[in-house]
Design goal:
The complex is a heterodimer of chains A (345) and B (678). Chain A is of the alpha+beta class and 345 residues long. Chain A is built from twelve helices and ten strands. In chain A, the strands form two sheets. A seven-stranded mixed β-sheet of chain A has the order 1-5-6-10-9-8-7, with helices on both faces. A three-stranded antiparallel β-sheet of chain A has the order 2-4-3. By secondary structure, chain B is an alpha+beta fold. Chain B folds into five domains: 68 residues, Phenylalanyl-tRNA Synthetase, Chain B, domain 1 (2-Layer Sandwich); 190 residues, Phenylalanyl-trna Synthetase, Chain B, domain 3 (Phenylalanyl-tRNA Synthetase, Chain B, domain 3, 3-Layer(bba) Sandwich); 70 residues, Phenylalanyl-tRNA Synthetase, Chain B, domain 1; 201 residues, 2-Layer Sandwich (BirA Bifunctional Protein, domain 2); 87 residues, 2-Layer Sandwich (Alpha-Beta Plaits), CATH 3.30.70.380. Helices cover 31% and strands 26% of the residues of chain B. Chain B is elongated and about 125 Å long. The chains are: A alpha+beta (345), B alpha+beta (678). Chains A and B meet through helix 5, strand 1, strand 3, strand 5 and strand 6 of A and helix 2, helix 6, helix 9, helix 11 and helix 12 of B.
């Protein structure tokens, strides 16, 4: 017995030194502690020993068993140390994320700001007719005011509302909604619009606008200012200021163009470097707005003596370019991955 | 419209710097786009909005400047004296509607070709080329009063002067030297033999004043804005003259302009009066009386403007006021303010001069959310659904792209059979129609990135497609998915579609029924330009397709990697994601058994699936473990290991139960033609 135990211990020592991998260690465990191992056989021989030696050998074999377990465990730590000595400065593996387009996320963000005030979000269609795009908006077809609204016309049979075209602003949605539902109304209408402008860094023939309008019994100009100020402060920053400049739109009276204090330089005119965003003007034009012209309300069958309303519109690309310092509008439609992945969900 | 400060100073004391004046004008509504110093003068370039044609004259601008500066405007109106009548020719107007009023004056013995410096400076600083004293005077008067005038060489006019429509194909050569063909849309000035001017737009070369001119005919008129607009658009021209006529000129100021021009010409270029003749009648320019209520004004603007301020502003603007009642006044707009037609126009005048900045912002309490009709309208709208779809697909790891809606009709016809909606006036010839599919947009975006050594692209887009239909046209929202360069990309895409439908229609059924996400199934369908393609159907209605772009199209579109594409019609899909409910899963463990299969090419995997489904009610999942592609595998056969999971919702399945089912499956599979068990 003693000889066989000694032999076993020698074998174990050799095998242990020779094992390097976890697999080999596992095999060792099976070899020395498994059901068919030599040690188990030795244990099986104990009952055959004389009684006074049973206890002694039992203890010796158990001691050996404990030693084997300990030795194996200690060697498992080799593997741990191997793992710990891994060079962690190697480059990381990429995580494959998805993303939404920046125009989509900004669109959603702007709409949700207005939803908080009680606006409903309703989209309109891109293919429109002359009546909804011009006449109902107080833009007679043969009038100089029509000239600032160049449009793409479509080859579709014209019906009673004039020729078909691609809408040049989201305002036709106002008309469609006001014809279908009577006040009180508060609607935000985002969408794609088209103008036959030559494409350059700041112009695209296809872009996105967000239109909003409110019609009710006591809606006034102060409400228009308040609503837009709330939007600007929520979207840009809480210390942004707005400036309303009198202007002209055929569908609103009074009308205004809205400038926002420059988010980059905050209007502080630096004589050395011209602010790249506002060119030291201190103000950036972001919105057009006004009180809805009674002619427009009447074209939709709304009593202009009882109800008043305001409307506003903004170009999404322009706002995104201002907020994120994007300098070329063409980047939005080029879909270069280096652009897309800068903006996430 | 450009105007110079010195010109303005002829009518107004300007006591502020040019920059300050520019700021004041802008904040009251006349946006100064550019301010330039030229010599000892400042040139303002202002945006004249289409409602303020009174700003097309220096007097109109002076009036505006007077209001913002709080000063009075000083005009000396020319004094009318008795003039001899023009006897040489008659002035005959064909239709009063086209030309309500025409004034002709002859000046004899002028010195053409002289230059007068102060006049030259006035005209040039307003952006008009200086010619000689005579032409410069006409431009000076046009700038001042807003009425365009024209001079003809009187000796070149043969007979009477007619204001008539051109006859079809009638020829005309303008002072720009271009020969043009006119038609009934063009209003012309003509003599007995020829056309001598395109009315309100441009004079003809045949009666142009040159250095040899001795006698001139000075024309001043009021032409119908619509007639001039149609005429100039038909001919493709736009001049300083037509610009003003189109927006309406004043008959009252016409008389002053014509008289002053004649006087100035005589003074600067010599000559004597050869008489004056008028045709037609000075059009009535009486503005409407408008009643303004202070109460309504305040509630429209949302602020209380003191009554004294209101009256002061209106007076400064040139309105005349009559007190009718305690809370109301009646106002009359000044001359040239044809844009003021109703009370809101007056409100705007008051507000802009008072200052929009003085109106404090307030947030309105919106009660629109109680408008059930509006809510209904909103619910039927696709907006929320499309955004949810975008979010979900982005979650799956795809990136959203936005591509152009306008493409080339030839390319579109290659990709899709739907009838294309064409654009009548495209910006570029090749971009002449609305797209009927999102495939080319996807291909363009992929090509751009693939050409920059990026690979394994996963893009998606949610946008509209447009096409002609029996009852007109369709504009519908569509989702496109695209993957490039991935091995087994087809099945990756198929998986994404399944996940999307699981989300949208979460009536998920366990595989034991063999039905995926309520009603979703894939049918074999050949699609143009795709080699492997499937139709996506929901409850047997086709809602989209997916496939691998065939080699020819892939090369044609310039794509460096294989592209797998899917398109789903979102308008055909009901959004039931909101109806999702928790479905309890089994607490009992699943057991699996593997089976190695060799499937001949002629037999479809779905045969195996069918057999397993028929034999087994405890099937919870099927997974392909390994696909073998070793040397000992013939090419007409697919070899793989299938792991079948068994699970019961009510108990733990015993080994023997599972074994017996698995044995039955193995038997049926081995009996099936084309299937061999390994």
């Amino acid at each position: 017995m003693q000889e066989r135990l000694n032999q076993l211990q020698e074998e174990f020592k050799k095998d242990l030194q020779g094992s390097k991998t976890t697999k080999e260690l596992k095999n060792l465990k099976i070899k020395y502690l498994g059901r068919k191992s030599t040690l188990t056989q030795l244990f099986a021989q104990i009952p055959a020993l004389p009684n006074d030696q049973k206890g002694l050998w039992g203890k010796k074999l158990n001691l050996f068993k404990v030693k084997i377990n300990l030795a194996l465990e200690n060697n498992v730590k080799i593997e741990d140390r191997e793992e710990e000595s891994l060079d962690l400065t190697f480059p990381s593996a990429s995580c494959q994320e998805g993303s939404r387009h920046i125009l989509t996320t900004v669109n959603e963000k702007i709409c949700s700001i207005f939803e908080r005030l009680g606006f409903a979000v309703i989209e309109g269609s891109e293919i429109e007719d002359e009546w909804h795009n011009f006449e109902a908006l107080n833009i007679p077809l043969e009038h100089p005011s029509r000239d600032s609204f160049d449009t793409f016309y479509l080859d579709l049979p014209a019906k009673d509302k004039g020729k078909y075209l691609l809408r040049s602003h989201t305002s036709p949605s106002q008309i469609r909604i006001m014809k279908k539902t009577k006040p009180p109304l508060a609607v935000i209408s985002p969408g794609r619009v088209y103008r036959p402008d030559e494409v350059d860094a700041t112009h695209s023939f296809m872009f996105h606008q967000i239109e909003g309008f409110v019609v009710g019994e006591a809606i006034n100009f102060a409400h228009l200012k308040g609503t837009l100020l709330y939007f600007a402060q929520e979207f840009f920053s809480c210390d942004v200021e707005l400036r309303f400049r009198p202007h002209f739109f055929p569908f609103t009276e009074p009308s205004a163009e809205v400038d926002m204090s420059c988010i980059m330089c905050k209007g502080k005119k630096n004589k050395e470097t011209k602010c790249s965003i506002c060119k030291n003007k201190g103000w950036l034009e972001v919105l057009g707005c006004g009180m809805i012209h009674p002619n427009v309300l009447e074209a939709c069958g709304i009593n202009a003596k009882k109800y008043q309303g305001f409307a506003f519109g903004m170009g999404v690309e322009r706002i995104v370019m201002l907020k994120y310092s994007i300098d070329d509008i063409r980047l939005f439609y080029e879909n270069d991955i280096r652009f897309l992945k800068q903006f996430s969900i | 419209m450009k105007f110079s400060l010195n010109f303005l100073k002829e009518f107004l004391d300007v006591n502020v710097s040019a920059k300050e004046l520019a700021k004041l004008l802008t904040m009251a509504g006349m946006e100064v786009e550019q301010l330039e110093r030229i010599g000892r003068d400042w040139v303002f370039d202002v945006e004249v909005t289409t409602n303020r044609y009174d700003w097309l004259s220096i007097l109109g601008i002076a009036r505006e400047a007077a209001v913002v500066l709080g000063r009075k405007i000083k005009i000396t109106y020319p004094v009318f004296v008795k003039e001899s009548s023009l006897k040489e020719r008659n002035i005959i107007i064909e239709k009063n509607q086209d030309c309500p009023y025409y004034i002709g004056r002859i000046i004899k013995n002028v010195r053409a070709g002289s230059q007068v410096n102060w006049l030259k400076e006035r005209v040039m600083n307003c952006g008009i080329t200086s010619v000689d004293a005579i032409v410069d005077v006409t431009n000076y008067c046009m700038l001042k009063w807003g009425n365009p005038l024209h001079v003809f060489d009187n000796d070149k006019i043969e007979g009477n002067v007619y204001v008539r429509r051109a006859r079809s194909q009638e020829q005309f050569m303008g002072i720009d030297g271009k020969q043009r063909c006119l038609g009934k849309n063009n209003l012309v000035i003509a003599d007995d033999k020829k056309i001598i001017a395109l009315a309100g737009i441009m004079g003809a070369k045949n009666t142009e004043v040159d250095n040899n001119t001795k006698n001139i005919f000075l024309e001043g008129a009021v032409f119908s804005p619509l007639t001039v607009r149609r005429s100039r658009r038909a001919i493709g021209l736009d001049t300083e003259s037509s610009y003003r006529f189109e927006r309406r000129v004043s008959g009252v100021f016409l008389e002053y302009a014509s008289l002053e021009a004649a006087t100035l010409i005589r003074k600067l270029s010599g000559g004597v009066s050869g008489g004056c003749r008028k045709a037609g009648h000075k059009p009535k320019e009486q503005c409407k009386r408008i009643v303004i209520s202070f109460c309504d004004l305040d509630s429209y603007l949302g602020t209380a403007i003191p009554k004294m301020d209101v009256k002061k502003i209106l007076t400064n603007l040139g309105f005349s006021i009559h007190n009718t009642a305690k809370d109301k006044i009646t106002v009359l707009a000044p001359i040239l303010r044809f844009d003021v037609k109703r009370e809101i126009d007056v409100y705007e005048e008051i507000a802009r001069v008072y200052g929009y900045d003085k109106i404090s912002p307030q947030i309105p309490f919106l009660t629109a959310c109680s408008n059930t009709n509006l809510l209904k309208f909103s619910k039927h709208n696709n907006y929320n659904f499309k955004n949810q779809v975008r979010k979900y697909i982005a979650l799956l790891g795809f990136r959203e792209i936005i591509t152009h809606s306008i493409e080339n009709q030839k390319e579109l016809r290659d990709l899709d059979d739907k009838e294309v909606v064409l654009i009548v006036n495209p910006l570029r010839k090749q971009e002449d129609s609305m797209r009927t599919t999102l495939l080319s947009g996807m291909a363009k975006a992929m090509r751009h990135n693939l050409n920059r050594s990026v690979s394994f692209l996963r893009f998606f887009e949610v946008a509209n497609i447009y096409y002609k239909e029996a009852k007109g046209f369709c504009e519908i929202p569509v989702l496109s998915l695209g993957i490039s360069g991935k091995l087994e990309g087809f099945f990756y895409l198929k998986g994404a579609i399944e996940e999307l439908f699981n989300y949208v229609n979460p009536v998920r059924c366990l595989l034991s029924n063999g039905v995926k996400a309520a009603g979703l199934s894939f049918e074999e369908k050949s699609v143009k330009n795709f080699t492997n393609s499937l139709a996506i159907t929901v409850n047997n209605k086709m809602v989209g397709f997916l496939g691998k772009l065939d080699r020819k199209k892939k090369e044609n579109l310039g794509l460096k990697e294989n592209v797998y594409f899917a398109q789903v019609n979102l308008s055909l899909i009901e959004d039931k994601s909101g109806e999702n409910k928790y479905k309890p899963f089994s607490i009992y463990p699943a057991v699996y058994r593997d089976v190695s299969i060799s499937l001949s090419k002629g037999v479809k995997f779905k045969t195996i699936e069918k057999i397993i489904n028929e034999e087994c009610r405890y099937l919870s999942n099927l997974r392909i473990l390994d696909t073998y592609k070793g040397k000992d595998v013939p090419s007409d056969v697919s070899v793989f290991t299938l792991r079948v999971f068994y699970q019961s919702p009510k108990k733990t399945l015993t080994s023997s139960e599972v074994d017996s089912i698995h044995e039955r499956i193995r038997n049926r599979l081995s009996q099936q033609e084309g299937i061999k068990l390994r």
